[in-house]
């Protein structure tokens, strides 16, 4: 008897809920927000540099006279030469020391390398102005250690306010970039190559010459061009150390021209900002072109550590003491000097510091409305700006790397470019943007929120470089599974992708908070009475000859950064403890 089976009932396709916000328009809004915030400040800057008069004055015509006037000014040409000499000197010193320290930490038997390696990153965590003031208080012409060295010991002293002296400080500030770049290459390299040279009878010099240095070619080139580009836009060093010796850099020349010009908002400043932007852009293009074939210098196998480190022999202990001394002289002692300067009436070798002890500097910080307001304003901007910036950049990162939006490939470049643009250029650009665009420019022009926009746009790159690698480590299959179950792109992003990014989001918020508390370049042309921030207030107070209150403000800046980092580290450790529990 034949059995007849009933045909299977057709399975109805799972109905998909229509998303409240369609993916396409929402992704376009995210892209448009990033594009407008990045490009908008630079457009009026180009226009104003080609006008004979400031935008708000009638009768102006389009002309290149501002560029002719700028390039014909001997003071600008000298400032440009000083900038190039400073950038070259600082870059060479930072790259050489950074590479040497990276080799010592990753490839040798250096004692204490697990502590010395992270200590080299201190200049990244110390606010730049705080480090500069600390150096000035100890190593400047009237610095405590300078006076002790020259007057008490009768030895020839250094000159921090010279181009070589400022170059040393510039190298200290940028050295962590070279160190991290070289360290990453060495840790990702093939250590068996060193073992092969050692097995064939090669010594330390041969290993360094034939394996280590060739591996570092790309890292040296990459970090060198990046450091040189960053040195072109340095503002704090020439303002604090160069002005007393009449040494200008391009950034300080533009800043002083803006403040001292009889013509409000002179077009030559816009022209100088455009030239600085063009130089930085050309360097970044050259860097990208030179690094196209960087793969030829990388190992073809997965990262493996050498079976044994390079033996330093009798230089083992001296090298450790030398690196520890470098960290102490460049970071630890200047921070102690910063605290000392903030607590004495005068830092001099003629009278013992405990005889000059005073709380007047701290009392002035809390009693002076301008100084006190700069602290609260900086905290407000750092708190709101860090959260808002990371939220926008997180969405932009997901759109760039986990969506089908047609313009998604332009987002990484838009997110990276602001940090490559000199901060002073962004400051001038936002100044003109707020003037050109009547609304909301009129509302932002003289408010704290206008400064918040400039700082956040300038530093959004930092959030992206934290979030992009974290997103790359999250499998796209999770998002595909959510999509297959009927979830839209926004639902998948909100319920799957962003929760998995939470540790990176916290890290990005902490990094943005630290940067927004410390940064000042983009707002030197935007700060007005009533909208002071820590950095701009320190510049103005220093110009009045009041180093004590400046040191107190710098120490507060350092403490805010330390508190933010401690909270971020504490959150990370708690999460790890819960995971292992």
The tally of domains stands at: 2
Q: What integer is the average pLDDT?
A: 86
User: Could you name the CATH class of the largest domain?
Assistant: Mainly Alpha
Rough shape?
globular
Assess the beta-strand content as a share of residues. under 5%
Please, how many helices? 27
Strand runs, count = 0
- Counting helices, strands and paired strands, the structural category is mainly alpha
Stated plainly, the CATH topology of the largest domain is called MetI-like fold
Question: Ranges with pLDDT <50 over ≥5 residues?
Answer: 1-16, 297-301
Distance from N terminus to C terminus (CA atoms, Å) equals 64 Å
Q: Could you give a short account of the major beta sheet?
A: none
Q: Rounded to an integer, what's the Rg over CA atoms?
A: 27 Å
Helix content: 55-70%
């Amino acid at each position: 008897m034949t059995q007849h089976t009933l045909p299977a009932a057709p399975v109805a396709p799972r109905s998909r809920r229509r998303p409240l916000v369609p993916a396409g328009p929402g992704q376009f809004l995210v892209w448009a927000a990033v594009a407008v915030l990045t490009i908008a400040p630079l457009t009026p800057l180009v226009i104003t540099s080609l006008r004979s008069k400031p935008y708000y004055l009638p009768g102006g015509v389009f002309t290149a006279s501002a560029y002719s006037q700028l390039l014909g000014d001997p003071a600008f040409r000298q400032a440009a030469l000083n900038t190039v000499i400073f950038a070259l000197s600082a870059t060479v010193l930072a790259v050489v020391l950074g590479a040497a320290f990276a080799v010592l930490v990753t490839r040798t038997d250096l004692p204490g390398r697990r502590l010395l390696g992270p200590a080299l990153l201190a200049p990244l965590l110390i606010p730049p102005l705080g480090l500069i003031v600390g150096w000035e208080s100890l190593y400047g012409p009237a610095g405590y250690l300078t006076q002790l060295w020259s007057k008490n010991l009768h030895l020839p002293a250094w000159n921090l306010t010279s181009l070589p002296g400022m170059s040393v400080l510039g190298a200290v500030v940028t050295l962590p970039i070279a160190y991290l770049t070289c360290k990453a290459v060495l840790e990702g390299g093939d250590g068996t190559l060193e073992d092969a040279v050692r097995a064939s009878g090669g010594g330390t010099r041969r290993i360094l010459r034939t394996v280590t240095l060739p591996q570092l070619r790309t890292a040296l080139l990459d970090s060198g061009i990046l450091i040189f580009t960053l040195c072109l836009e340095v503002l704090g060093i020439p303002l604090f150390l160069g002005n007393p010796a009449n040494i200008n850099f391009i950034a300080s020349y533009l800043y002083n021209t803006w403040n001292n010009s009889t013509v409000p908002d002179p077009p030559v400043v816009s022209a100088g900002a455009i030239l600085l932007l063009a130089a930085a852009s050309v360097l970044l293009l050259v860097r990208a072109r030179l690094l196209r074939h960087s793969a030829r210098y990388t190992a073809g196998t997965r990262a493996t550590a050498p079976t044994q480190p390079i033996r330093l022999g009798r230089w083992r202990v001296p090298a450790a003491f030398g690196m520890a001394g470098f960290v102490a002289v460049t970071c630890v002692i200047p921070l102690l000097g910063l605290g000392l300067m903030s607590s004495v009436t005068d830092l001099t070798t003629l009278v013992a510091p405990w005889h000059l002890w005073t709380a007047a500097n701290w009392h002035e910080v809390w009693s002076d409305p301008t100084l006190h307001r700069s602290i609260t304003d900086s905290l407000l901007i750092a708190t709101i700006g860090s959260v808002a910036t990371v939220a926008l950049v997180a969405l932009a990162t997901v759109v760039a790397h986990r969506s089908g939006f047609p313009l998604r490939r332009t987002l990484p470049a838009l997110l990276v470019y602001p940090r490559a643009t000199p901060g002073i250029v962004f400051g001038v650009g936002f100044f003109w943007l707020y003037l050109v665009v009547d609304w909301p420019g009129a509302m932002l022009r003289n408010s704290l929120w206008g400064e918040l926009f400039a700082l956040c746009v300038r530093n959004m790159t930092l959030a992206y470089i934290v979030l992009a690698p974290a997103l790359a480590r999250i499998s796209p299959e999770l998002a595909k599974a959510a999509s297959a179950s009927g979830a839209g792109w926004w639902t998948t992003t909100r319920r799957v992708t962003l929760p998995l990014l939470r540790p990176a989001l916290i890290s990005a918020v902490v990094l943005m908070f630290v940067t927004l508390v410390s940064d000042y370049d983009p707002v030197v042309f935007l700060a007005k009475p009533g909208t002071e921030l820590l950095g701009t207030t320190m510049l103005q107070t220093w110009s009045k000859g009041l180093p004590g209150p400046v040191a107190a403000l710098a120490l507060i800046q350092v403490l805010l950064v330390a508190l933010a980092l401690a909270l971020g580290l504490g959150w990370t450790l708690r999460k790890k403890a819960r995971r292992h529990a």
